[in-house]
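Reagents: none. Just compute today. Sensor histidine kinase.
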Amino acid sequence: MGDVSLMWRNNYSDFPADGAMDGNVMNAANKGVNTRLNGRVALLYCAAMTPPFSIPVWLRALVTNFALWAVLCALAGITTYGDAQQHGDTRSYWQMTLGWWRGYVVMMVQSYLLYMVCRRYPVLLSTPRRIAASYAVYVVLGWPSAMLGLGAWRTVKQHKALTFENAWGYVVSMYKFEWFVGFVLLTMAFGAVAAGLLWRQRQQQARELAQTRLTLERQRLAALRGQLEPHFMFNTLSAIGALVRVGDKPLALDGLARLGDLLQYALTTSERDWITLEQELQFVQDYLDLQRLRFGPRLQVRIEGTHALDGGIECPPMLLQPLVENALRHDLECHDGDSDIVLSFAQEGACVLARVSNPVAGYAAPKAGLGIGLRGTRARLRLAYGDAASLETRQADGRFVAELRIPRMAA
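Predicted 3D structure written out:
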């Protein structure tokens, strides 16, 4: 394995910019994909494990090269063995195959050297023109030496002295068809080496591109989280400020203690890309406990279908809280009565559906926040899941409904 290995939840799609991305996020987007897309396990990049024993590259190339040539010589032995038997040749099939192997051992060495040189200098195969030039040089240098190697084997086979004159004498006396076969074998060897190295280069480029995209998406997620956390802090401190203004200091102190717990969760999850939905729901309940200090019994929230969260289903941190906060702001802060907020969970095929609903007020809520909660959530979903997750909002039966769908991915 190389330095990194690829495993991707993959949909390499460009993420369209919308109102959820402010200038800071788009600046971060210029620097580089996510670990989860389309709900499929798609590990983009992680450090590859080092095997206890690694075969050197040169040795793997050597063994592979000679093995492929051995297969080619074995096929050639099959074609000649039958003809030889008809002409009274008593040699065995393995003797004939070994003869082919010895005759083309020079070509085997040539193809191995070609692989190592082109691997060391990938620029030789970087453009069609350079590939053609490399092929021409390989044929010009390799063709005569390959035929000379074949002539040397025939010299030894005929029990003559292994000299250049004797070997070259066999070369010049060869039939044109034998020269043509040598040319074809050289061309096949070059094509196989070039194809293998080009495929390897494409794989390496794909891994580098994936690593770059992963870096970009992590930066974009960090930028969105950087928006979300000050947004959460602002609105939560506003709630505690309201307690202070009414002069209830013990309640305000209790609120500050609860805020400390919420901030601890936010800080703990700031270094994690994924948490379980059960953890996220607990955070929402702690957030509601803090808001209950401000609103008292007026804050009425029903939580239904929590059994759908069994199994350690994962999601990005602080995904549900903006939805609940949005419902609270557009319900309690718009009237003096009790709230009627419903948070429900259900399994929907391969997804988990989280639905938050609240009554539609007759007028808009006071401007109590930064207004990025739902927009930021949509952007984070797109980065984390691609098209496999969604956040839809609508009005139905006098209620505002936000529906969040995410794939069921277990921790």
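The chain is about 55% helix and 10% strand.
Action item: order primers for follow-up constructs.
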